[in-house]
Each structure stands twice: as structure tokens, then as C-alpha cells.
Design brief:
The complex is a heterodimer. Helices cover about 40% and strands about 15% of the residues of chain A. Chain A is an alpha/beta fold. Chain A folds into two domains: about 25-160 and about 310-370, 3-Layer(aba) Sandwich (D-Maltodextrin-Binding Protein, domain 2), CATH 3.40.190.10; about 165-310 and about 385-405, D-Maltodextrin-Binding Protein, domain 2, CATH 3.40.190. In chain A, strands 1, 2, 3, 6, 10 and 11 form a six-stranded mixed sheet that branches. A three-stranded antiparallel sheet of chain A has the order 8-7-9, with helices on one face. A two-stranded antiparallel sheet of chain A has the order 4-5. The radius of gyration of chain A is 22 Å and the shape is globular. Residues about 1-25 of chain A have low confidence and may be disordered. By secondary structure, chain B is an all-alpha fold. Helix content of chain B is about 70%, strand content about 0%. Chain B has helices spanning about 5-30, 45-50, 55-85, 85-100, 105-115, 120-125, 145-170, 175-185, 190-195, 195-205, 205-215, 220-225, 235-240, 250-285, 295-325, 340-380, 400-405, 405-420, 425-450, 455-460, 465-480, 480-495, 500-505, 510-520, 525-555. Chain B starts with a helix and ends in an 11-residue tail after the last helix. The chains are: A alpha/beta, B mainly alpha. At the A-B interface, strand 1, helix 3, strand 2, helix 4 and helix 5 of A face helix 3, helix 16, helix 18, helix 24 and helix 25 of B.
């Protein structure tokens, strides 16, 4: 037993030696030459900054760490965040202090506004993601969600990891028939005051709810996918505010308080305080039932209009110290084995970004064999996926929401 | 060497805080080149002023700073007055350390689960007593007035103020004063309030100030129990610092300075209140009333502290129950099924953080104890004892980290550290913890040290011992009990640190507390139960050692076992 351990110690000290020996060690690796990237990654320690509020996510990341240690001799360390923006702050503080080469953050689990910010402020390394060996499995030419993160062009600066879609879930023991649209939800709330709420804006789930409502209620949704023009805002969003003004007094605590995030929302559901909630994960209800957090009478549903969906990605900061290692990990995360393991609700239940048509039959079978759980809608019942509007709209919506409902 | 100790302490504490504040002040006035802020301007302040609900945030922070402190102090003083020498007194004294070792966040989660409409109390009362089949739609936790926030803070500040009062009481000879007053016909509680409090208060004034500063700027408790639309100022600042829109950093920095202002304003108002109370109190003390209110005061003194202690303990018990709960639907008083699953899932992940926590906490505590002992020994040998409770002593700078809100200087401090090229390591985290451990170790150690009868050392010196010999072989062994208590307090403070660990460690130094708070963002109450219990048990271990070790070592010397 002692032999492998000492080998490990030796391997761990190698990169240090390499760093001392060769002055070129800090030059950015070239993803086009994959073999050299894998070589360079060997022995690196990759610090992966990822939100850690979900035990199942953390367990999956640990599982990944065990695999990449075995295969690529990479030590993957999960830096646990309660908010992804903490990682963005860290990179910013490093830039502010002139640390352009030895950054602490090697890889971030990111999407949407955080990505838009980092891209706009030149805080990202790349392009690299389109050269990953597993990238073609996402069928990027036919899957715009891989190339556009909330309508912002990805430009090879981040590699897709998970796809998610908003779903509602409700307790069948308390609700006979669930609403199928925002107006129906409003009617239902009139009959059942205090039984529904959503996460507080600007939490991403809160943003998703008001964006979903706007997509359902606005006359013209095309305009939401362009950068927002100040003069359009009032007219386009007027139906949303009329809807929310009527809905809020009917919410849990009469809309005077909101849960902070999706997990608090789930807890309210588990405690029986509300009977309809929403989530950004199609398998959340099944996973929570297995975890005793929700009663087994909970089921998921979607609105007829379609539901907002998006992807989350891996990005590498411009000053990351272990870029090669981060790329190898990102590529491994895209492998069919890792993606299928992730999709199993007993493991995590986060949907794959791979296009199943592109896979070999063996790999495809991994996905077909997964039991999605009792409260999860099968893929063909999830309905249409609505794209995320441009971040400028979401920002403006969140700001207007706060101006309207905070401090009243 | 010894002469340097006070200055070293001052530099260690003041330098980082001033540097951190400066780095927060620059962006607050528009200067932050990394984000394209090259010129000074007042725009961040204008942006701050237009934030919805800002006035309310500020008001809640300000009021919770004052109200929490007033209530906690009143409960502690009434208890000491009413229960001195009773069985309740002994029980509470024994409970102080365990109560102090419950981390703030854990106590807050416990309270939230206790009082929520779907919480433990409602479950016990339902449906038989209340008739509730479903949780009532009542806004209790996160109420817009911050009442539950203040309740949560009061529960945690009472043990702190009590410990500080008990330490200070030793030098007041309260029993003799009360006996004297009683011989003049005063009832015991009234007597205590009239003859002991006026001398006690100046001795615990600085800890009281620390409570005001803490309560007006706390982050974790306010996130769990505080209002949400809008949240308290400190929580808002954290959200702005974490906003994906980086231009909000300017406004966040301005907010950090505003927080400093709010805390200072709360301190100044307290100062004003002190004057009013002093004037009114003088009339009451000198009035000669010997009986009136005795019974009510006595009852309140015992009942209030019992309520607070019981709330904290039942809250923790509720968390413990949660950590073992399977299915647990409202309105069941107890879970329908129990499971070890939550513990089994968490245990493999516990090892690393627990080891890191203990390593960081013990190093920071040892460093702090070394510095504090050096400073105190220097004070003894040079024969200069700063007047207690006066704000003028040089070592008063010790309290700076307790008075300046963490959120106001820590973000700036990270930039300073980056600019100095220091890598986030355990040592940097230990250094950050030292900022907060030092003052508390000093607070708990100084009284015993200064009270120590100087004749013991003198005897040793006349017998030919060197000053160092007298220190190592006489003074230190005789002060073992208070020394261990101070170390236990230091450990508890270090273990509870969240922001400094996260920011200075770049998140790469996982401790039990950072893991617990990260998981808490997931809101799974069962897992929170597991981590909160682990988080609470580590400092408790320290307190058990602090009480147990002197008894083991000095089985044959009763006077040196320390007073429980």
C-alpha cells in the first residue's frame, strides 16, 4: 500500500520541479495540440470553483475528481462557493492587484450574467472549448444553446456541461389539477391564496420566473432576444407588472417575504407551507423525494407555452495557473460516461448537453438505461424549451422588480 | 522583547484594518482601475442612494445594533441581580460555555426552525391545540421589522456578555457590597442593581460596544433570520459585492463605508443613551427605595435568561432531530421515520475540513495567547496597568477588529494581500483569524492576569528565581485555568469565522464553517443539522478540556482548579 502513495507524492512534486526548470511553463497551452495539453496537465492541481449548495452536486464533483486522478493524474479540488460571483470577485481582485499569471481560480462553473460579465471585462481565457475532443458530441451546429449562453456568443470561451429547464412541481395530495399557463396560475392563486411563491429576485430562479412570465404574457417576444433599448422597456413589460401586481398579494406571506433560493423554496414545499413551486432542474423533485425532503406525492409539470431552459458551462479565467489541467477536466466532463452518470437522478439528475444522436450505440445505451424517477417528466413531455432572453433584459427586469417591490 | 509585544499587537491589528478600509474607500469614490475607474467621483454614492429600500436597510441595521445590545445587557444584569448564589445561577454558569460555543449561524437555524409557522413549536401545537392542518400563513421568520433577527442575536449575545460580566465581577467583591446594602434594608435584587451595576458596567463597556458593532453589521444571522425586502445593510452590501454586474463593486464599496458610519452612529447613540440612563439611574439609586419592584425584577431576571437558554438548546435539539429525520411532514411533532443517511453522506467529507479547522484554530489561538501573555507580562513588570474600561489605553486598539465591521474592510484587505503578492494559504487565513482571536483572548485573559496576586512572584524572586523563572514556574501554572478558558474562547472564535476564511483563503482552505455555510446556501435542513452539530461540537471540546484539564492536573490543589 505504501508504494502507490509515495508515487503519488512524487507525482505531486513534479509540476513544482517543472515550474522551476522551464521558464516556458507559464505559456498558455494550445488546445489544438491535445496530446501536449494532456501531457502538460499531468500532475497539475486544478482548483474548480463551483457552487456547493447541493450535496448531490458535490458528490458528483468528488466522483469526477476520483476519475481524473486515476486517468490523467490530475488532482481536482472543489472550491465550494455559496455564490458563483465569489469566484468572479476573486479573479477581479487578482486583476486589480496585477496578478495576471498565477491566478487561484482554474475553472468556474458558470453561465448567463456571470459569463457575460467576465467576457465583457476580458477575464476569460480562450478560445479553447471548441477544440476539445468531446465537443463535437454536443452537435453544436444543430444546438444553438451550446453556442449562445443567454444569447451571448460563447466564442469558445466556455465548454458546455449541463442543460437545465425550468419546471413547476406540485403536491398531488393538495392540488387537484395544476395550472398550465401564467393566467391559469393567477386564477389558481385566487382560489388558493398563500400557496405559491417564487425565489426572490435577483436570485436566478426568481429571475427565471419573471422572465418566464414575461415570455408568456408579452405580445412580441422577439425583441427580448436583442439587447434591450431603454425606450422599449415600459411597453414590453407592462403586462408583466400588471400580472405580478395582482399575483403578489395572493402569494405565500402575501408577497411580503420571498424565499432566497431554490432550496429554500423546496423546503417550504417540504414543510407543507406551499403546494406549488418551481425549479431549474427537471429531476429536482425526484431527487428530493429520495432524500426525504419532499413527500412522494409531488409531481412535476410544465406550461403549455413552453418553459425557459439554458445551459451551464465551464470557463477558465485568463490568469488561471493550471489551464491545461482545467481543459482536460472540462473534456472529461463532456464524455458520455461522465454525462450519463450525472443524469442519473440517484447521482445528481442534471441533464446532459450531449446530442444523443451523435453517440455510439454503447454510449447511447448508458442514457437509455437511466431511471428518471417518479416525479420526473419524460423528455417528450417537457415541451418546448424557450431560450433565455438577452442578459440586458434580465438585468433590467430584476432591477425594476426590486424598485417596485422592495422596501414597500 | 517583551516591550515590543503591545506594539506588535497594535501593528498586527491596526495595519490590516486601515489598509483594508483604504482599499474600500478608493472604489467608493470611483477609483478602481481594474474596472476602468480612473477618476474620483461621487457616482457610487449617488447609485447607492437610489437603491430601493436603502433607508429601511440602514434603519434595521441601526436599530438591531441598539436593541439587541440593550435587551441582552438587561437580561444578563437582571439575571445576575436576581439569581446570585441560587441553583439556577450555578446551572446557567455551567451552561455559559456550551451556549457560547454554538456558532451564530447554527443558533439562527435552530431558532428559525423553532418559531417558523411550520416549525417545531407549531408542530407540537398542531393540530390538537391550534387546529392547524397546514402551516398558518404568518410572517414570523424574516419579518420586515427584524424582530426575529434581534431575537436570534440576543440568544447568542447573552452568553458572551454573561461570561464577560462574570470575569469582571471577581474584582468587585459583589457579595460584600450586597451584604452591606441588605443590612440597610434593601431587598437582594434591588441591592445588587443599586450597588454592583454602577461599578460593573464600566468594566464590561468595551464588550458591550463589541456587541453593538457586531449586531449592527452581522451577515450570516441576518441572512437566515433577517428581513428580506430589503435585507439589512450588511447583507445588501454582500449581494452587491457578489453581483454579476461588476460595476456594482463601486456602489458596494460605498455601502461598506456607509456600514462603518451606521455602526459608529449606533455606538455614538449608545453613548448618548448611557448619559441618559446614568442621569435617571442616579436618581433611582439615591432615591432610597428598598423594596419596590423586587418581586417583578426577580421573576424577570430568572425567567428571561431561562427562556433564552432554553430557546437556544431546544433549537439545537431541533437541528439534531432534523439530522436524523426521514420523512417529517407538518403537523407531526416527530419525524415519521429516522435515518442515518444524512450523517453517512456527510461523514466522508468531514475529515479534511475538521482537520483544517483544528489546525487553523489552534495555531491562531497559540499565537494570540503568546502575544497576549507577552503584553500582559510586560505590563506587570513595568508596573503600568491601564485603567480598566478607559478608552485611552494603547491596548484599546485591540478592540478595533471588534468595532470595525468585517464587511467594511475584508474585501479591501484581499486586494492589499493580492498586491503584496501573498498567496492565499492557511497562514494567511490564520493571520486573518488572529485579528479576531487576539481581542477575545485578551478580553478573557487580562482580568485574571491583572488580578493575580503579585506577592507570589515577589516571593519567587526573593528566593532567587529570575523574572522569567517566576513567570514560567509560578505565574503560568497558577493561571492555568483562566489560560485554558481564554484558549477555549479563542478556539471558538476562530472556528466561527466565515468571511475571513473565505476571502483570505480564496475559498481554498475549507473549514467546517465555510462548508456549513456553503451547504446552508442549499437550505437542506437535515444536512444543516449535521454540519451545525459538528460545528458546535468542536469548540465545545475546547471548553471541556479547559474545564477538565486543571481538575486532572491539580487533583491535590483545590484552589488551582479554577472556578466553574
Amino acid at each position: 500500500m505504501s508504494l502507490p502513495r509515495s508515487c503519488h507524492a512524487l507525482a505531486a512534486s513534479l509540476p513544482l520541479l517543472a515550474l522551476l526548470a522551464s521558464p516556458t511553463a507559464l505559456a498558455a497551452p494550445d488546445p489544438g495540440d491535445w496530446q501536449s495539453v494532456v501531457e502538460e496537465a499531468r500532475g497539475q492541481t486544478v482548483y474548480w470553483y463551483a457552487w456547493a449548495g447541493e450535496e448531490r452536486t458535490n458528490d458528483y464533483i468528488q466522483w469526477t475528481a476520483d476519475r481524473v486522478a486515476e486517468r490523467y493524474d490530475i488532482e481536482l479540488v472543489h472550491v465550494k462557493l455559496s455564490d458563483t460571483a465569489e469566484a468572479v470577485s476573486r479573479v477581479l481582485a487578482e486583476k486589480q492587484a496585477g496578478n495576471d499569471e498565477r491566478g487561484n481560480v482554474d475553472m468556474i462553473w458558470i453561465n448567463g450574467e456571470n459569463f457575460a460579465t467576465m467576457k465583457a471585462n476580458d477575464l476569460l481565457f480562450g478560445p479553447w472549448s471548441e477544440q476539445l475532443p468531446h465537443y463535437p458530441l454536443t452537435d453544436p451546429d444543430n444546438t444553438p444553446a451550446v453556442r449562445y449562453d443567454w444569447t451571448i456568443p460563447v466564442d469558445g470561451l466556455e465548454s458546455p456541461w449541463s442543460s437545465s429547464q425550468v419546471v413547476f412541481y406540485y403536491d398531488t395530495a393538495l392540488v387537484d389539477s395544476h395550472p398550465r399557463s401564467m393566467p391559469e396560475l393567477l386564477d389558481w392563486a385566487h382560489d388558493n391564496p398563500g400557496e405559491f411563491t417564487y425565489a426572490r429576485v435577483p436570485n436566478f430562479l426568481g429571475n427565471a420566473f419573471i422572465t418566464q412570465a414575461l415570455l408568456e404574457l408579452a405580445d412580441d417576444t422577439e425583441i427580448l432576444y436583442e439587447p434591450m433599448q431603454e425606450e422599449d422597456f415600459e411597453a414590453v413589460t407592462a403586462p408583466l407588472w400588471a400580472f405580478l401586481d395582482e399575483l403578489h398579494p395572493l402569494l405565500w406571506r402575501s408577497g411580503r417575504a420571498f424565499p432566497g433560493n431554490s432550496s429554500e423554496l423546496r423546503r417550504l414545499m417540504g414543510d407543507g407551507e406551499i403546494s406549488i413551486a418551481l425549479s431549474f432542474s427537471t429531476t429536482e423533485a425526484s431527487g428530493a423525494i429520495a432524500n426525504f425532503e419532499l413527500p412522494d406525492s409531488v409531481r412535476s409539470y410544465v406550461h403549455d407555452h413552453g418553459m425557459i431552459g439554458n445551459m451551464s458551462f465551464m470557463a477558465i479565467p485568463y490568469n488561471a495557473q493550471h489551464k491545461a489541467g482545467a481543459m482536460v477536466v472540462a473534456n472529461y466532463l463532456l464524455s458520455p460516461a461522465a454525462q450519463a452518470h450525472k443524469q442519473d437522478p440517484l447521482v445528481w439528475g442534471s441533464n446532459t448537453v450531449l446530442s444523443l444522436e451523435t453517440l455510439e450505440p454503447d454510449d447511447r445505451a448508458r442514457f437509455d438505461d437511466i431511471d428518471l424517477g417518479i416525479a420526473t417528466l419524460p423528455p417528450d413531455e417537457l415541451g418546448e424549451v424557450l431560450g433565455q432572453p438577452h442578459p440586458s433584459w434580465v438585468d433590467a427586469l430584476a432591477e425594476a422588480w426590486q424598485a417596485r417591490y422592495v422596501g414597500r | 522583547m517583551l516591550r515590543l509585544a503591545p506594539w506588535l499587537i497594535a501593528a498586527l491589528l491596526v495595519g490590516p484594518i486601515l489598509a483594508g478600509l483604504a482599499m474600500a474607500a478608493l472604489p467608493a469614490f470611483g477609483y478602481l482601475p481594474a474596472l476602468g475607474g480612473d477618476a474620483f467621483s461621487l457616482d457610487p454614492w449617488r447609485a447607492l442612494m437610489t437603491q430601493p429600500g436603502l433607508a429601511r436597510s440602514v434603519a434595521i441595521s441601526f436599530i438591531s445594533g441598539l436593541a439587541t445590545t440593550a435587551v441582552s445587557l438587561a437580561v444578563v444584569l437582571l439575571f445576575l441581580a436576581a439569581a446570585s448564589g441560587s441553583r439556577l445561577d450555578r446551572w446557567i454558569r455551567r451552561m455559559v460555555s456550551p451556549l457560547l460555543s454554538i456558532p451564530h449561524a447554527a443558533a439562527a437555524f435552530g431558532l428559525a426552525f423553532l418559531i417558523a409557522p411550520s416549525g417545531l413549536l407549531a408542530r407540537f401545537a398542531s393540530p390538537a391545540l391550534s387546529g392547524w392542518e397546514r402551516p398558518p400563513d404568518l410572517l414570523i421568520v424574516n419579518d420586515p421589522w427584524g424582530l426575529s433577527l434581534m431575537a436570534g442575536l440576543v440568544i447568542k449575545e447573552i452568553p458572551f456578555l454573561l461570561l464577560m460580566s462574570l470575569a469582571a465581577l471577581h474584582q468587585l467583591d459583589a457579595e460584600r457590597r450586597v451584604a452591606m446594602a441588605r443590612s440597610l434594608g434593601y431587598r437582594p435584587t434591588i441591592a445588587w442593581l443599586k450597588v454592583v451595576v454602577p461599578s460593573l458596567y464600566p468594566l464590561i463597556r468595551l464588550p458591550v460596544f463589541a456587541v453593538i458593532a457586531y449586531a449592527s453589521s452581522v451577515v450570516d444571522v441576518a441572512m437566515i433570520l433577517g428581513p428580506t425586502l430589503p435585507p439589512t445593510l450588511a447583507v445588501s452590501i454582500l449581494t452587491w459585492f457578489n453581483d454579476p454586474d461588476l460595476s456594482r463593486r463601486f456602489m458596494a464599496s460605498a455601502g461598506a463605508l456607509l456600514q462603518l458610519g451606521v455602526t459608529l452612529a449606533a455606538l455614538a447613540s449608545w453613548w448618548g443613551l448611557e448619559c441618559v440612563v446614568r442621569r435617571l439611574g442616579r436618581g433611582w439609586v439615591a432615591g432610597g427605595q428598598r423594596q419596590r419592584g423586587e418581586r417583578a425584577l426577580r421573576l424577570a431576571g430568572k425567567a428571561l435568561i431561562l427562556l433564552a437558554a432554553a430557546t437556544a438548546l431546544v433549537g439545537i435539539a431541533g437541528l439534531a432531530l432534523n439530522s436524523l429525520a426521514g420523512v417529517w411532514r407538518f403537523p407531526d411533532g416527530l419525524p415519521q421515520t429516522f435515518t442515518l443517511q444524512h450523517w453517512q453522506r456527510a461523514l466522508p467529507a468531514l475529515g479534511g475540513p475538521v482537520a483544517a479547522t483544528l489546525m487553523i484554530a489552534s495555531t491562531a489561538t497559540l499565537l494570540a495567547v503568546g502575544l497576549v501573555l507577552a503584553a500582559l507580562e510586560h505590563e506587570q513588570r513595568s508596573g503600568r496597568q491601564p485603567a480598566q474600561g478607559r478608552l485611552t489605553s494603547a491596548l484599546t486598539l485591540l478592540y478595533l477588529p471588534l468595532i470595525v465591521p468585517q464587511i467594511a474592510f475584508l474585501f479591501g484587505l484581499v486586494v492589499v494581500m493580492e498586491a503584496l503578492g501573498t498567496r492565499p494559504t492557511r497562514w494567511l487565513v490564520i493571520f486573518g483569524h488572529l485579528l479576531f482571536v487576539l481581542p477575545y483572548v485578551f478580553l478573557s485573559m487580562s482580568e485574571a492576569y491583572r488580578r493575580f496576586d503579585p506577592r507570589w512572584s515577589r516571593v519567587a524572586l526573593t528566593l532567587g528565581a529570575t523574572p522569567n523563572g517566576a513567570f514560567w514556574r509560578v505565574r503560568l501554572p497558577m493561571l492555568l485555568a483562566p489560560l485554558l478558558t481564554a484558549m477555549a474562547v479563542g478556539l471558538a472564535v476562530s472556528i466561527g469565522q466565515y468571511l475571513p476564511t473565505l476571502l483570505l483563503g480564496a475559498g481554498r482552505v475549507p473549514t467546517v464553517t465555510t462548508e456549513a455555510v456553503a451547504l446552508a446556501s442549499g437550505g437542506n435542513r437535515r444536512l444543516i443539522g449535521v454540519w451545525a452539530l459538528v460545528q458546535a461540537s468542536l469548540p465545545l471540546l475546547g471548553f471541556i478540556i479547559a474545564v477538565g484539564l486543571p481538575r486532572l492536573l491539580w487533583t491535590n490543589r483545590r484552589g488551582m482548579r479554577g472556578t466553574p
